[in-house]
Write a structure and sequence with these properties.
Structural class of chain B: mainly beta
Number of domains of chain A: 1
Radius of gyration of chain A: 22 Å
Number of helices of chain A: 2
Order of helices and strands of chain B: HEEEEEEHEEEEEEEEEEEEEEEEE
Oligomer: heterodimer
Helix content of chain B: under 10%
Largest interface: A-B, 31 and 38 residues
Strand order of the largest sheet of chain A: 1-2
Mean pLDDT of chain A: 87
Strand content of chain A: 15-25%
Low-confidence stretches of chain B: none
Helix content of chain A: 55-70%
Number of strands of chain B: 23
Low-confidence stretches of chain A: none
Mean pLDDT of chain B: 86
Distance between the termini of chain B: 138 Å
Largest sheet of chain B: 9 strands, antiparallel
Number of domains of chain B: 3
Strand content of chain B: 35-45%
CATH architecture of the largest domain in chain B: Sandwich
Shape of chain B: rod-shaped
Chain lengths: 65, 332
């Protein structure tokens, strides 16, 4: 379902996505999943590095300040 | 003719003379028509003429509407019908200036009252053009022509009259308030006259695993160069630089309800929204991460390759939204 709000006329239309919109929406789902995956990987890698160095995130930030 | 002292008479001849004299004297009595009457024709004795019997008093009263009654014998009664919108007749006068009657007629008193009001009113001819407004100068009502697009009504420097002037810049104007619905909510600003746009998104209630993204002008192809910092209250911090087909507002889903926490809010600034340069979008958001209930801060700086004025902002959710509000403001 998609909502379209025309702010000039204040008209609101709720309708099903057409084929093109649905296709793009499926791509958006993949993109969001990819973003989540990248953030998780970044957080995991960071945590692993801190463990390897034996310091906390605050100590790492202090080193870089 | 013989006299009473004549001794010898010739009666037949005398009667003939007499008869001829009578015929001569009363010849006017001959003729005439039924109902005719005798009338003196001159001052001469026995000079008469037959004339129609229509002399003297009225012989009949014949009437037509609105007069009623009439007759040709005895006492004759006549009247006049009352006037209406469909027939002539007599009308009652009225001083009223408020009656809606269709059968009363106004008096000069009523007419003057109406005239006095009309005379004291502002003349229609004061305004001449679409959009004109009327105000009073020192003495009389005058017109103020319509301003130009975007101008606002203000008071002149002498504080004596209204005038149109350019709107002051810098203030924020609420353009719209939109309730999020479904998986995609598109907000269109067909004519964007604002230099910058500011959007507040809050109260979003997606399912637990939903993630929110945002897109401008429907542009999809790898054009959101995103620098995102993502921190949670449990100490997890992540930093990511990448290109996406839409800018990320949340990762792992924004949880709608958690006791004691304002569940989510994002503030977005769209710089140079109505110009043809590439768009900078700065976002600060806070939400409760649905994956671990941690309050999450997300800061995103996006450069979009969009070089046309922003006329559309779309909020996309990976799950169906049941609540959420977008307030869109314009900044001159």
């Amino acid at each position: 379902m998609i909502r379209i709000h025309n702010t000039e006329t204040d008209e609101i239309i709720d309708r099903e996505m057409d084929a093109e919109e649905l296709k793009q929406y499926k791509l958006d789902l993949l993109s969001a999943a990819e973003a989540e995956k990248q953030f998780k990987e970044a957080a995991t890698a960071k945590e692993a590095l801190l463990n390897k160095l034996g310091i906390t995130a605050e100590e790492a930030a202090l080193l870089l300040s | 003719m013989p006299t009473s002292t004549d001794l010898v008479t010739d009666l037949p001849a005398d009667f003939e003379v007499f008869g001829q004299a009578v015929d001569t004297d009363f010849v006017d009595l001959l003729g005439g028509a039924n109902g005719y009457i005798l009338s003196k024709a001159s001052a001469t004795d026995l000079d008469f003429a037959w004339i129609p019997n229509d002399q003297g008093d009225i012989t009949a009263v014949n009437v037509t509407s609105p007069i009623t009654g009439g007759g040709s014998a005895g006492a004759v009664t006549i009247g006049v019908s009352a006037a209406s919108t469909s027939a002539s007749g007599v009308v009652q006068l009225s001083d009223s200036t408020s009656t809606t009657s269709s059968v009363l007629a106004s008096t000069p008193t009523a007419t003057k009252s109406a005239y006095d009001l009309a005379n004291a009113a502002i003349a229609k001819s004061t305004v001449t053009t679409a959009g004109d407004i009327i105000y009073r100068n020192a003495t009389v009502p005058v017109r103020l022509g319509i301003g130009t697009a975007g101008q606002v009504l203000t008071v002149n420097s002498g504080a004596t009259a209204p005038e149109w002037a350019a709107a002051a810049s810098g203030g924020m104007t609420l353009i719209s308030t939109t309730t999020l619905s479904g998986t995609s909510t598109s907000i269109t600003v067909a004519t964007n006259t604002y230099k910058d746009l500011v959007a507040y998104i809050y109260g979003v209630n997606p399912n637990a695993t939903a993630a929110l993204t945002l897109r401008i002008n429907g542009i999809t192809t790898g054009v959101y160069q995103e620098t995102m910092t993502f921190g949670q209250e449990n100490g997890v911090v992540a930093h990511n630089v990448n290109n996406y087909s839409a800018m990320n507002l949340s990762v792992n889903g924004a949880q709608a309800v958690q006791t004691g926490v304002t569940t989510n809010v994002w503030a977005l600034t769209f710089r140079d929204a109505n110009s043809t340069v590439r768009k900078l979008i700065a976002t600060n958001g806070n939400y409760v991460n649905s994956a671990n209930n941690n309050v999450t801060t997300i800061q995103t700086d996006v450069v979009s390759s969009a070089t046309s004025a922003i006329t559309n902002i779309t909020v996309i959710s990976t799950q169906t939204l049941t609540a959420g509000t977008v307030q869109l403001y314009g900044v001159k």
